[in-house]
Specification:
alpha/beta, Rossmann fold, five-stranded parallel sheet, three-stranded antiparallel sheet
């Protein structure tokens, strides 16, 4: 918000005058865009609010939204029937010479009309596009070219903020025609800290005349995993379950609230997220769910799935871009929201595991010890035979046995 306000004050030369917000579902992107529009209107800017769609008709909707923000009459341009004077020196709705203009020309005219009107009647304009990752690529390309020409090259006061999933870097922004959007500022919406979650829960409760005891507040904050939507759900259900908020929200109220919030999360966040994933993406998540620790070693996931970490790296990256997992440290993975582990376990029980071995919660360390013990007991056994005995992948058995042999030859104990 500070960066946005600074850009509004400074104008088109500010590096944040065009910006993209990235974050997983439920991280607060839509709310943040709304807050930015409120600030813009308070500062005398025109605002245009758009939610992206994948359909080709999105480009007409975008042009319509932009033109309707400043001139009802100019909406006629969105019908693609306008009149041209001379060689493009001007546009008129009266001349009888009518022809269909290209989408690029209509988009450029719409953004320029907004900019010119904003300079005459307001301090500028702000266009926000939500669900940016979901937009029709051709429409975004035409909008990017128009925004670059009007705001960056001509220096007219049209500000832009888009918001979408991190996956947009690999989808919409990977398009060769998106060089403008590829270069603009980014803001990553990371999880809240525990202290921030406490504040986000306590402040609105107190402001509304309620109270919450310290133990209940600590439980509520911990249950959110710093996930803004979960903060909202836990706070709402805590208030609703409490018999009298002014008398204090208790730990019992919070526990009931957490259960209700998890149910909402599963229906509103987890199910839509997983629906968009590939089978292998889901198998990776299911493999992670076999372990009870918050952080799961990549080597463990690799072993359980019977795939090399190099092979799985592309899926780890895709899941990270989708806002489902993140890497808290080198060689480790973690769900963005911890309750997804339990949800995946229930899903696995209901439909059966998606891949063999996924249900095994053994760590790589335990399996390695069993491989070493089996190899010492029968040094001449093949990798396949050892793998069959310990329930591991033959390639992994081979790597462990070669490392064991090397350590013995160098005189270093395993």
């Amino acid at each position: 918000m500070r960066r946005c306000q600074a850009a509004m004050t400074a104008g088109p030369d500010h590096p944040d005058h065009s910006m993209l917000l990235k974050g997983p579902r439920g991280s607060g992107k839509t709310v943040l865009l709304a807050a930015m529009r409120d600030v813009a209107e308070q500062n005398g800017l025109l605002t245009v609010r758009v939610t992206a769609k994948p359909e080709p008709t999105f480009v007409d909707a975008l042009i319509e939204q932009i033109t309707s923000a400043y001139d009802t009459e100019s909406r006629r341009m969105s019908s693609a029937q306008v009149s041209v004077l001379g060689s493009g020196a001007g546009v008129s709705f009266q001349t009888p010479e009518v022809r269909e203009l290209s989408v690029h020309t209509r988009m450029l005219a719409a953004v320029e009309g907004l900019a010119d009107h904003a300079r005459r009647k307001a301090r500028g304009a702000l266009i926000t596009i939500d669900e940016f990752h979901n937009a029709n690529i051709a429409a975004l390309r035409d909008f990017a070219h128009a925004l670059q020409d009007i705001a960056k090259i001509d220096g007219k006061p049209v500000m832009f903020v888009g918001a979408g999933l991190p996956s947009m870097e690999e989808t919409a922004l990977a398009d060769p025609g998106m060089t403008f959007f590829q270069r603009i500022a980014r803001t990553q919406l990371d999880p809240l800290s525990l202290e921030e979650s406490v504040e986000a829960l306590q402040a609105p409760i107190n402001a509304a005349g309620g109270t919450i005891d310290d133990d209940a507040l600590a439980t509520a904050a911990a249950a959110t995993s710093g996930y803004p939507f979960m903060v909202q759900l836990v706070g709402y259900h805590s208030w609703e379950h409490c018999s009298g908020p002014s008398n204090g929200i208790t730990s019992g109220d919070v526990q009931a609230a957490v259960d209700a919030a998890i149910t909402d999360m599963e229906a509103q966040v987890f199910t839509p997220v997983v629906r968009d994933l590939s089978d292998t993406d889901r198998m990776v998540l299911e493999a992670m769910s076999a372990f009870d620790t918050p952080d799961v070693q990549i080597a463990d996931v690799s072993r359980v799935m019977g795939k090399t970490s190099n092979y799985l790296s592309v899926y780890f990256q895709r899941l990270s871009e989708a806002g489902v997992i993140h890497r808290p440290s080198r060689g480790r993975l973690r769900y963005v929201h911890a309750t997804m582990r339990d949800w995946f376990r229930r899903q696995s029980i209901e439909r059966g595991p998606m891949s063999e071995g996924v249900s095994s919660p053994e760590t790589t360390t335990n399996v390695k010890e069993r491989i070493i013990a089996a190899s010492n007991a029968d040094p001449n056994a093949t990798h396949v035979a050892i793998a069959s005995r310990v329930g591991a992948n033959p390639d992994y058995v081979g790597r462990v046995r070669r490392a064991l042999r090397a350590s013995l030859e160098s005189g270093v104990g395993e």
